[in-house]
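Why should sequence recovery work at all? Because a backbone constrains its sequence more than one might expect. Tight turns favour small or flexible residues, buried strands favour hydrophobic ones, and helices have their own preferences. The token representation captures these environments compactly. In the example below, the structure is given first.
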């Protein structure tokens, strides 16, 4: 039996007809940028999370960069984040000119350890980026409390965590700004790149909308006024047809960038969003079956109380990771190593001077963790075959 880590073709089969109809509609209507599908997807996504504003962008990395810029973070600032994440989290901090400050993770949740955050706060610290790694929620109550005490912003990197629930609340609603990725393999993935920012703060939403489109137009002017404390109403000619010609488009007020979700991706994401809860239930079902079968031989993932892990990746730990993953490969089972290099030891961050023991849990996990196949359509038969194969391996 051959089982891949993720099987996007199976997912597509389930939505093929509807997706193709919607995508063809976009092609026929020839409104490719900032059209109806983008607008509708943003409001449907906001409704799904229960957040006031959802603003789509070109990808999850841009979402993080734009979030930090919207909060005014740049040169001379420090941003605290986890040592155990995908590079984009740390990259976004460095990209805006700030310094990433890495905090070690909890050995059971793999998320930033809130108990270690306060000792890293300095006068330069402006924000904490909490990454809900693999789809498991961070301890947001503790993180938000520390942030409040020290007057810091909180950004959620929810790239792997759409649909994730923390103490009954949706991830993406628990911080100043949350960032999502719609990279194809994500739980809600498009057919290319895509991303989203969510916030309950209307002023931040305006600034984000300006930053993603060159700081131009009505939002550009509003953002300029907000950033410069100018209390002036922005008057727009309501009679103008902005879909054909936006009279303010070539007037720029702040330095932004070009980062937009396109209509084709939005059309596909709208179809997929309807299925997301069902897909998440299937991921949880698969994880439970894995846990039952494997808990006696390997360290299986844990779930926080009143929370929902959405199992973007199903991660295990093994002392004998290389031998085990090679053994599974021979049985036709794909595995993945997440993450082989923690952030504090990335070559590019060498000048920051971290040693392995500075984030010792992240270092330890980087030598042991690996992912088994996980996608909503995986069958019980496939999971049982994987469990049987893992149990055949000598873990001693
Ligand atoms: C934790 C995390 N942050 C950020 C990103 C960046 O998202 P994107 O690939 O859409 O730029 C990803 C995904 O790749 C991710 O897993």
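From this structural description, the recovered sequence reads:
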């Amino acid at each position: 039996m051959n089982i891949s880590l993720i099987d996007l073709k199976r997912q597509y089969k389930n939505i093929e007809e509807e997706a193709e109809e919607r995508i063809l509609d976009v092609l026929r209507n020839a409104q490719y940028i900032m059209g109806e599908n983008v607008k509708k997807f943003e409001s449907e996504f906001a409704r799904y999370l229960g957040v006031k504003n959802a603003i789509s962008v070109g990808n999850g990395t841009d979402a993080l960069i734009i979030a930090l810029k919207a909060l005014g973070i740049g040169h001379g600032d420090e941003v605290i984040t986890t040592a155990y994440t995908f590079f984009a989290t740390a990259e976004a901090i460095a990209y805006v000119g700030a310094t990433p400050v890495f905090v070690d993770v909890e050995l059971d949740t793999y998320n930033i350890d809130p108990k270690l955050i306060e000792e890293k706060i300095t006068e330069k610290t402006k924000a904490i980026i909490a990454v809900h790694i693999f789809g498991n929620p961070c301890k947001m109550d503790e993180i938000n409390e520390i942030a409040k005490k020290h007057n810091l912003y909180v950004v959620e990197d929810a790239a792997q965590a759409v649909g994730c629930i923390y103490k009954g609340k949706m991830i993406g609603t628990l911080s100043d700004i949350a960032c999502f990725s719609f990279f194809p393999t994500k739980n809600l993935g498009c057919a290319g790149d895509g991303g989203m920012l969510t916030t309950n703060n209307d002023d931040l939403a305006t600034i984000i909308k300006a930053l993603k489109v060159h700081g131009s137009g009505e939002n550009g002017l509003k953002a300029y006024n907000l950033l410069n404390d100018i209390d002036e109403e922005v008057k727009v000619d309501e009679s103008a047809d902005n879909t054909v010609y936006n009279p303010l488009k070539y007037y720029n007020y702040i330095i932004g960038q070009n980062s937009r979700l396109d209509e084709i991706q939005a059309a596909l994401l709208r179809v997929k969003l309807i299925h997301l809860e069902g897909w998440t239930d299937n991921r949880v079902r698969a994880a439970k079956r894995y846990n039952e079968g494997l808990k006696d031989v390997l360290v299986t993932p844990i779930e926080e109380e009143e929370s929902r892990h959405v199992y973007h990746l199903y991660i295990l730990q093994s002392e004998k990771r290389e031998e085990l993953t090679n053994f599974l490969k021979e049985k036709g089972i794909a595995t993945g190593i997440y993450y082989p290099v923690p952030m504090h030891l990335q070559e590019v961050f060498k000048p920051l001077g971290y040693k392995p023991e500075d984030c010792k849990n992240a270092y330890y996990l980087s030598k042991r963790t690996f992912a088994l196949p996980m996608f909503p359509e995986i069958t019980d038969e496939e999971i049982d075959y994987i469990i049987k194969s893992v149990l055949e391996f000598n873990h001693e």
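A few observations help interpret the result. Residues 59-61, 85-86, 88-89, 131, 157, 159-160, 181, 183, 193, 195 surround pyridoxal-5'-phosphate (CB under 6 Å).
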